[in-house]
Amino acid sequence: MRSEAAILWETGGTWSVEEIELDPPKAGEVLVEMVASGLCHSDDHARTGDLPAITPLIGGHEGSGIVMEVGDGVSSVAPGDHVVFSFVPACGRCQPCADGHSNLCDNGAALLVGAQLDGTTRHHARGEDLWTMVCLGTFGRHTVVNEMSCVKIEPDIPLELACLVGCGVTTGWGSSVYAAEVRPGDNVAVIGVGGIGAAAVQGARLAGARNIVAIDPVEFKREQAMKFGATHAAPSVGESFDMIQELTWGRMCDKVICCVGVGDGAQIAPIMALTAKRGRVVVTNIHPAGEGSIDISLCDLTLMEKQLVGTIFGSANPQSDIPRLMHLYRNGQLDLAGMVTREYELAEINQGFEDMLSGRNIRGVIRYR
């Protein structure tokens, strides 16, 4: 079939919206008509090269839509079902999945290649095969994905909001609840209040944090963070130090969650300084792939028993946690609508990313219908 998608033809370029040819789904695959896609910083990381990706690439990995057709052997979804994509197609059988860490499924090895899991492609344009961002390609009006990437949700949940749970919301919420293990009464700092950081603030609130300090240089984002549950806000790590020291009677933060646009190893030392004895720093944001060192006091790390950990997808299990987050939304405990700052047509995708990089959005969303 013919459809339309935003293609990155070379690293460092811009997104080109044009017609594509889409093959039907093969065994284990699903054809989905997209309803919405979030504009996540990870797609811009692929554009800039901070995150290695093969071009030409259809971007997008935070999406929702309606199943149109299924390939042989597909049993978990059927035509007409509403789905949110998990950007990790979890098999449920490998060792990480069996251990309850499906965010680290062995299928993740294929994500940056961008082909289907059988190594072939379904998307084509200008006579060339197209790769897709983490085997999804949600910057298209239609896409073919593996059944394992689809999470069925209730049909009454707005798909233009549900798309956020495909990456940013689950990643941020899980960074607080799972990776940081925020507990009632904890003092928490969230650095960076975009889509992931806003969800991390909400996760910390739901976990019962006492103080939640949102750190972001953009005043609009600091204001929004207060609406999501932050108790205090500061424009920078350095300017938050005295505030956190006073709030915590000198103890500092039990948990610090890093959600900035692009990580910088030189900033790890001052971030660790915000952290209490036995405190934990969670690095959720992407650092440039070529960055090989960080600035950190290993003496402080040892003597104060501080922890520095990474997380992907918020250490969540998408097939169970995406429905869980949908229930929190339906119960009024998770604010998804407040996270969507602007909606865009597909043709406006480059403007959407410009707004993201300029700090004008918590989350921008492309609407297809």
CATH level 4 superfamily of the largest domain: Medium-chain alcohol dehydrogenases, catalytic domain
- End-to-end C-alpha gap: 18 Å
What class, by secondary structure content? Answer: alpha/beta
**On the 0-100 scale, what is the average pLDDT?**
96
Silhouette: globular
Give the H and E element order: EEEHEEEHEEEEHHEHEHEHEHEHEHEHE
Number of helix segments? 11
Q: How much is the radius of gyration in Å?
A: 20 Å
Determine the strand fraction and express it as a percent band: 25-35%
CATH architecture of the largest domain: Alpha-Beta Complex
Percentage of residues assigned to helices: 25-40%
Write down the domain tally.
Answer: 2
Low-confidence stretches: none
The largest sheet, given as strand count, sense and whether it forms a barrel, is: 7 strands, mixed
How many runs of DSSP E, i.e. beta strands? 18
Could you name the CATH topology of the largest domain?
Quinone Oxidoreductase, Chain A, domain 1
Quickly name the level 1 CATH class of the largest domain: Alpha Beta
What does the model show?
With 369 residues, the protein is an alpha/beta fold. The protein has two domains: 2-166 and 336-367, Medium-chain alcohol dehydrogenases, catalytic domain (Quinone Oxidoreductase, Chain A, domain 1), CATH 3.90.180.10; 171-311, NAD(P)-binding Rossmann-like Domain (Rossmann fold), CATH 3.40.50.720. Helix content is 26%, strand content 27%. It contains eleven helices and 18 strands. The protein has helices at residues 41-48, 95-98, 159-162, 168-179, 195-206, 219-228, 237-247, 268-273, 298-303, 318-330, 349-357; strands spanning 2-8, 15-22, 29-38, 57-58, 63-70, 82-85, 123-125, 128-132, 142-146, 150-153, 187-191, 211-215, 232-234, 253-258, 275-283, 307-310, 340-344, 363-367. Strands 3, 5, 6, 9, 10, 17 and 18 form a seven-stranded mixed sheet that branches. A six-stranded parallel sheet has the order 13-12-11-14-15-16, with helices on both faces. A five-stranded mixed beta barrel has the order 1-2-7-8-4. α4 crosses α5. The longest helix has 13 residues, at 318-330. It is globular and about 65 Å long. The mean pLDDT is 96.
